[in-house]
Backbone:
């Protein structure tokens, strides 16, 4: 029997703002998981909750897909992220990056600024990799059934993406198995919940526990066994 906890984004935002900053003075939150699992949705809702709360301004959100130099750069983009964003923010300076255009297949010339802020959200496959763990204030892993994830991707990008997507899925499976990302995550989120709820305000956490700093025990959660 699996324990599922329905928890509010507002509560999670409070926890993020109260967490220690580990990337310089910034709380780095990584939202990881396989493609099509619902990482972008979760990240956007958490950003909304942070912006609505009193503790932190709206966070900067970086999608790792914007940093990849094409399909072959699935996991090797990290030095680019480190140079452009993490190193400056760690030192208390603003960073910037150039967004990759999947249509033009090149990086766009205009840089995207990354100001120093209390919270930085990093979303994408391998965002919570082991190398980043010491500087993460929160590591989230979003999961969903493989067939649903494939269906979502094809609906979004068309069937022509299938050959590259299948290679991508194989690469991320190998990475997650080697990296142990899910087992190390502070929070595992169900990206395809069947329980009825307001998805703009609540998410479904999988598993029986999280690390003590993010433990349950608040009025706006419901414990459900599924």
Residues:
């Amino acid at each position: 029997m699996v324990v599922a906890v329905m928890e509010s984004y507002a509560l999670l935002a409070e926890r993020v703002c109260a967490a220690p900053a580990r990337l310089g003075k910034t709380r780095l939150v990584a939202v990881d998981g396989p493609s099509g699992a619902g990482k972008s949705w979760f990240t956007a809702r958490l950003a909304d909750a942070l912006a609505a709360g009193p503790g932190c301004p709206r966070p900067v959100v970086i999608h790792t897909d914007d940093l990849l130099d094409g399909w072959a750069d699935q996991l090797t983009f990290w030095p680019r992220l480190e140079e452009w964003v993490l190193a400056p923010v760690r030192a208390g300076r603003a960073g910037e990056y150039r967004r990759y255009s999947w249509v033009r297949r090149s990086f766009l010339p205009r840089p995207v600024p990354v100001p120093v802020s209390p919270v930085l959200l990093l979303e994408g496959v391998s965002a919570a990799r082991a190398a980043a763990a010491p500087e993460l204030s929160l590591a989230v892993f979003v999961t969903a059934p493989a067939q649903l994830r494939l269906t979502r991707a094809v609906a979004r990008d068309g069937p022509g993406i299938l050959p590259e997507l299948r290679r991508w899925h194989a690469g991320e499976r190998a990475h997650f198995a080697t990296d142990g990302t899910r087992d190390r995550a502070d929070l595992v989120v169900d990206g395809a919940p069947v329980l009825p709820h307001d998805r703009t305000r609540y998410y479904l956490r999988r598993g029986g526990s999280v690390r003590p700093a993010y433990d349950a025990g608040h009025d706006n959660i419901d414990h459900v066994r599924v």
